[in-house]
Structure formats: structure tokens, C-alpha cells
Amino acid sequence: MTSRTATDEASFYSNAEDYWKEISPTVDGMLGGYGSISNIDINGSKTFLQRFLGDGEGKTGSGCALDCGAGIGRITKRLLLPLFKTVDLVDVTQEFLDKAKTYLGEEGKRVGNYFCYGLQDFVPESGRYDVIWIQWVVGHLTDDHLVDFLRRCQKALRPNGLIVIKDNVSYEGVIPDEVDSSVCRDLNIVCSLVRRAGLRIVHQEQQKNFPKELYQVHTLAIR
After folding, report:
1. CA angle 195, 69, 4 (to 5 degrees)
2. 3-state helix, strand and coil shares in percent for the chain, rounded to the nearest 5
3. 140: β partners
4. CB 59 within 8 A of CB 50
5. Is 91 marked within a binding site?
6. Domain boundaries along the sequence of the chain
7. Residue 60: what are its φ and ψ, rounded to 5°?
8. Where in the cell is it found (predicted)?
9. 120 labelled as ligand-binding?
């Protein structure tokens, strides 16, 4: 890595951290002003995830989940805590994790850990998780760091565990966002990075009924 590349990478991450520090710790803040889509998002995710959960051969357990880029715990509260015995949260912004402790209410007692890390630096515990949910955050990782993180996630899965990426997808190529210091990749690129990590996509679908002005959003189940 050249010094110029290292400098660019450092600013890519620090600019994103600075951006999120200025965002309100609310559902609307987590969703960029589109708090109204939260129910549609959660319902789509629940339908997607429940096809993998349950008893029987090849089914994913419901012991422990990890919410990556968790923010104030919107997904933890509405999707993961109703389906799993324990949930861990990881986010780069401490204020969001502090807010989560009140936002999650009584059910928050079943949160195991609040980790304050960027995903490029986070090492999940080996063999701990049935599901690792990664939503609207892969654009904050460089290609190499995303591949490395997915490899670490694979080691953190329990038998028949599942990694889920749900994120914006561009129509072609990589589109940078200077405002929040992220990128939006097309589906072929995301899939190629998954394969580079030594993983395979077992199911993929597009989220329906989001406002037309938003990027298309795809959900990938990965093992």
C-alpha cells in the first residue's frame, strides 16, 4: 500500500466517523430522513430471515445474533430481539450505542455486548453467532476490508450460521458518496467480493416497496 493510498483510506474512515457523529440518534437519523420506510424494511427482512430459522437439517439456530452498523438498535429492536435469545451490537458511534440502551427498553436486557468499533477493526468472537446481520454499512468498507471482515464473520458463525448483507445497490459500477464518505457498489461487484472471501450466496432478493428515488436494496444470505 502506498502512503497516498493509506492516507486516502484513513480519511475515508475518519470522514465517515465525523459524519455519523453529527447525525441525530433517532430512527429518522439512522435512515437518512426516511424513517417512514422502517416498517417496510423490517417486514421484508423478517420474511427473508425466517425462511432460514427453525429446527431441522440445515436450519439456522436462534441463539445469538450480531447487528453490524447497529446505530441506535432499530434492527435489533424490531427484527433480531424478537427472533433470537441474545443480540450483540457493533457500531462506530458511541452515542448511538448509548442511545440504544434506552431505545431498546426492557428487551434490551437480552443484549449481550455493545461493541464500539468500525467494522474494519472489529473481530467477532469465534463460533458465537447464528446470524450476523450487516445492513446499510458495507459501503463504509473498502473492498479489501469488506472481504477480510466477511472472512472473520465466517469464523464467528455457529454450525449452519448465516451472514446477511442488506444494502443499497447501484445499477452499474461503484458510486462514491462524498457526504457520508461511503460507496455504493453494483450487485455483481458485491457478489464478487463475497466469493473472494470464500463464501457463497445461498439466497438473494430485492426489497420491494421502497420509494422510487432511493437506490434499489438487495438482501443476500451468505454461508
Report:
1. 70
2. 40, 30, 35
3. none
4. no
5. yes
6. 3-222
7. -90, 135
8. Nucleus
9. yes
Task: Cell 502512503: give the residue.
Answer: 3
Q: Determine phi and psi for 153, rounding to 5 degrees.
A: -65, -40
pLDDT, tens only, 44-79: 999 999 999 999 999 999 999 999 999 999 999 999
Pick the CATH number of 3-222 from 3.20.20.20, 3.40.50.150, 3.40.50.300, 3.90.1180.10: 3.40.50.150
- Tell me the C-alpha distance between 75 and 82, whole Å: 10
Alpha helices in 140-220 (DSSP H): 143-155, 187-196
Q: Annotation-wise, does 135 bind a ligand?
A: yes
Query: Nearest CA to 105 among 129, 78, 132, 131?
Result: 78
Does residue 7 surpass a pLDDT of 80? no
pTM (predicted TM-score): 0.97
DSSP H helix total and E strand total for the chain = 7, 9
Question: CA dist 181 to 18, 54, 91, Å?
Answer: 9, 38, 16
